[in-house]
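The step that takes the researchers longest sounds almost clerical: writing a folded protein down as plain text. The outcome of that step, for a single protein, is printed below.
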Amino acid sequence: PPKPSHGVLFELAATHYIKTHSIHKRIVRCETSRLQILIKRWGCLPISKVDKASVIKLRDDLLKMGRSGETINHYFNTISKLFQMLNDEWELDIANPVKGIKRMPPSQGRTKRVNPELEALLLSGCDHLSLPLLRSIIQFAIQTGMRRGELMGLTWADID
C-alpha cells in the first residue's frame, strides 16, 4: 500500500532531490537555485499542502516579478520532477500539483548586439585594469557570438 505523504515536509523532499538528482544534471546550478527559492516559499509545508493552487499562485507571483514564460516553465518542470521522485522512489501516493496546469508560451527571444562604443568601453576597461586575457575573451566572444557557458566549455578539440 502507498505510504502516507502528509508528514513529509517540502524542505526535506527538495533537499533530498538536490543531493540525489540535481547533482547529476548539467543544469545543477539552475535547478538547485530554483529549489532553494521553493524551499523558502514552501519549506515548512507538508508536501501534501503543495497543491495546484500553490503552483498557480507561484506562477502569478513570478509573472508579477517580470519572469519570462520559459523561467516559469522551468519551475514547473522542477516541481514536477520532484513529485515524480516522491511517487516513484519514495512510493508516496501524492498528486503532482503541476499536472493540468497549462505551460507558459515560449518567449520571442531577443537579439543583443554590442555596438562599437560599448566594445571600446569594455576593451579600454580591460586595458585600464591590466587584464589582457579578459580583453581577448571579450573580443573572441564578440566575434563569435558565443555565450559565457559556450566559452567556458570550449576545448581545443572544438576549434577548427
About this structure: The mean pLDDT is 90. Helices lie at 10-20, 28-42, 52-64, 69-88, 116-128, 132-144, 148-152.
